[in-house]
Amino acid sequence: MSIGVTGATGRYERHAIDALIQRGVSPDDIVALGRNDAALADLTQLGVRTRQADYDDRAARGTAFTSVDKVLFVSGTDVGNRIYQHRNVVDAAAHAQVTLIAYTSAPRADTTALVVAADHKPTEAYIRESGVPYVFLRNSWYMANYTDMAGAYVEAGAVLGAANNGRVSAATHADYADAAAVVLTEDGHTGSVYELGGDQGVHHDRVRPGPVRGQRQDRRLHRSVHGPLRGGAARLRLSRRAGRGVRRR
């Protein structure tokens, strides 16, 4: 059984490859796909096969899944262009006659009002219409969305968020990757939709950045949903690099 992992240069994807190997999948039965061959090179040292493939490149996608049985299809990050990209991936998987697509979606993708999750509903629908057996992994918030920004939060003295009184069910990349490895290596999951997240939902006011370099910081929370949130983000003057630390879903 050969398993393809798309976007294999990412953090979640690397955890998924590790989890598959830990569950007994031979490295040479894993095909890691990504845009950048150089960024995939270290995986060959594990014995993992690699292939260059871009979500935008329909021609490359036509051969990307050759001899692949199952696909961990990790949603793209180009919000606004993802529907087109995702259709390329689904079409390629259908053409290759893969036996399962495990797609990383968003919580309650069919009803959510979350702006960055809007592409997931039509992607799920397209996968269903393709006729390829599927599992939807509706991953909730990533813990790294907080930890990667901890320094900026402490500097600003605030954890910015738009959840108001809502709870956030966060988990680590490794936790979500373990779930993916389970559905890809066990029978009985086809057609399932899994709402995944941490064991408990947590209010944003429980998120507290600790002191940095021994300096005690005022740890406040801005829970406003619109204007004050945008203003607070501007005051943080987040670099492009810091912005990329937030995993958009």
Please write out the topology:
Elements: E1 3-5, H1 11-22, E2 30-34, H2 37-44, E3 49-52, H3 58-64, E4 70-74, H4 82-95, E5 100-105, H5 120-130, E6 134-139, H6 144-147, H7 150-156, E7 158-160, E8 167-168, H8 173-185, E9 193-196, E10 202-203, E11 220-222, H9 227-236, H10 240-244
Parallel strand pairs: 1-2, 1-4, 2-3, 4-5, 5-6, 6-9, 7-11
Antiparallel strand pairs: 8-10
Helix pairs in contact: 1-8, 3-4, 4-5
Write up what this structure looks like:
With 249 residues, the chain is an alpha/beta fold. 37% of the residues lie in helices and 17% in strands. The protein has helices at 11-22, 37-44, 58-64, 82-95, 120-130, 144-147, 150-156, 173-185, 227-236, 240-244, and strands at 3-5, 30-34, 49-52, 70-74, 100-105, 134-139, 158-160, 167-168, 193-196, 202-203, 220-222. A seven-stranded parallel beta sheet has the order 3-2-1-4-5-6-9, sandwiched between helices. The chain has a two-stranded parallel sheet with strand order 7-11. Helix 5 (120-130) links the parallel strand 5 and strand 6. The longest helix has 14 residues, at 82-95. The protein is globular, with a radius of gyration of 19 Å. It starts with a strand and ends in a 5-residue tail after the last helix.
In short:
The chain has helices at 11-22, 37-44, 58-64, 82-95, 120-130, 144-147, 150-156, 173-185, 227-236, 240-244; strands spanning 3-5, 30-34, 49-52, 70-74, 100-105, 134-139, 158-160, 167-168, 193-196, 202-203, 220-222. It has a seven-stranded parallel sheet with strand order 3-2-1-4-5-6-9, sandwiched between helices. It has a two-stranded parallel sheet with strand order 7-11. The longest helix has 14 residues, at 82-95.
